[in-house]
Write a structure and sequence with these properties.
The chain has about 350 residues and is an alpha+beta fold. The chain folds into 2 domains: about 110 residues, no CATH class; about 140 residues, Histidine kinase-like ATPase, C-terminal domain (Heat Shock Protein 90). The chain is built from 8 helices and 7 strands; from the N terminus they run H-H-H-H-H-E-H-E-E-H-E-E-H-E-E. A 5-stranded mixed β-sheet has the order 2-4-5-7-6, with helices on one face. It has a two-stranded antiparallel ribbon with strand order 1-3. A hairpin with a 5-residue loop joins strand 6 and strand 7. The longest helix is centred in the middle third of the chain and has 71 residues. It is elongated. The two termini are about 25 Å apart. Bound molecules: adenosine-5'-triphosphate (ATP) and magnesium ion. Adenosine-5'-triphosphate binds next to helix 7 and helix 8. Magnesium ion binds next to helix 7.
Length: about 350
């Protein structure tokens, strides 16, 4: 763990504001100290205790390093306000100041250390849970693969026995081919989910990206009697820095889900727009919707309500978007249906 370990859930901007806030707090308390007459002992006592606030905050937000920096900085700022150390009459008083400085230098590092330890433990817990879910994934896949494999074995056996009647053999072999395809898809999904994503980002026109993806699912939409509607701002010149292949893979998963969730003759809309400094891609359907309490759950691997589904579609989308420093939102599409929104930064950090 590094000396200053900030909370990874906070953005650089948030950390900057927090550090600024604590710095101003320290300056304000120090100013109060120096602007108050020495005789006003009670007020000084209150200001001295106030120093614990920035110490604890820096320890919590920046770990051990933050705690140490805060205690040392406050010690340096505080020492000049202590009455002369040599005055024997003030010796008892000075002991209080001295102990307070010792406390500053214990509390800061202690809070920071405890925060670091808590982070370390929760990271280890996360890794353990991840490993467990991967183990569960592998066993689920193996289980799912067993059935089509057994079927393939059976079909091929029957086909071979019926070679005297080529038409029936062909029918069986076609079924075998379908099962093989299913297995291939499961394995590809599994790999896409389990493998670390090494993005190859390039500037891509948003409009091309969306239109190309729509073309890939046009056949499926037609089969389900769904109309695909593309909405992109006219003369849109939006360029998105992204890994085209991965992003299209994610969009395709959303479109396939939307098509599968829609009633016949429904409309699935895919919309691309720029909003503040973000690019939004929305996939909207008129299906039965997803209850609010289910929305987090379906981002977990292997959660599916479909017979042939692997439940890896949305986890893959989420993974791809997170790798692009974006996020996935799931909302209602009144009066019926769901709106999936990919929010991507216009200029993805390199
Ligand atoms: N647009 C949608 N409308 C309603 N429910 C949805 C929608 N998209 C996803 N879901 C629900 O979320 C579940 C998980 O979706 P996900 O894409 O992860 O897996 P899947 O579609 O079931 O299987 P796979 O994508 O692997 O074929 C789906 O089974 C479905 O119940
Ligand atoms: Mg899916």
């Amino acid at each position: 763990m590094t000396f200053i370990s900030s909370d990874p859930r906070l953005s650089k901007k948030q950390l900057f504001y927090r550090a600024g806030f604590v710095f101003i707090l320290i300056i304000a308390i120090t100013a109060l100290h120096y602007l108050t007459l020495r005789e006003e002992a009670i007020r000084h006592l209150v200001y001295r205790e106030l120093y614990f606030l920035p110490i604890i905050l820096l320890g919590l937000w920046f770990g051990l390093g933050g705690g140490i920096i805060a205690s040392l900085l406050i010690t340096v700022l505080y020492i000049p306000s202590i009455p002369s150390w040599s005055s024997s009459a003030l010796m008892e008083h000075n002991l209080g100041y001295f102990l307070e400085i010792v406390l500053f230098n214990i509390v800061g590092p202690l809070v920071g250390w405890l925060r670091n330890r808590e982070f370390q433990l929760s990271r280890e817990k996360c890794e353990a849970e991840h490993l467990a879910s991967m183990g569960q994934a592998v066993s689920c896949i193996a289980h799912d693969m067993k059935t089509p494999l057994t079927a393939i074995g059976g079909f091929i056996y029957q086909a071979r026995k019926r070679l005297s009647s080529p038409a029936r053999a062909d029918e069986r072999l076609t079924l075998a081919g379908k099962q093989v395809k299913r297995m291939e898809r499961m394995i590809l999904d599994m790999l896409a989910f389990a493998k670390p994503l090494n993005l190859e980002c390039k500037p891509e026109p948003l409009s091309d990206l969306i239109r190309d993806t729509v073309t890939t699912v046009a056949g499926k939409a037609h089969h389900h009697q769904i109309r695909l509607q593309v909405e992109i701002e006219e003369d849109s010149q939006t360029i998105l820095r992204c890994d085209r292949h991965r992003l299209q893979q994610g969009l395709m998963n959303l479109l396939v889900n939307a098509i599968e969730a829609s009633p016949p003759h429904g409309v699935v809309t895919i919309r691309g727009l720029t909003m503040k400094k973000e690019v939004w891609i929305e996939v909207i359907d008129q299906g039965k919707g997803i209850p609010a309490e289910e929305r987090q759950k379906i981002l977990q691997p292997f959660i599916t309500t479909k017979r042939g589904g692997t439940g890896l579609g949305l986890p893959i989308v989420n993974k791809v978007i997170t790798a692009h420093a974006g996020r996935l939102e799931i909302n209602n599409n009144p009066p019926a249906g769901t709106l999936f929104r990919l929010r991507l930064p216009e200029n993805m950090p390199a």
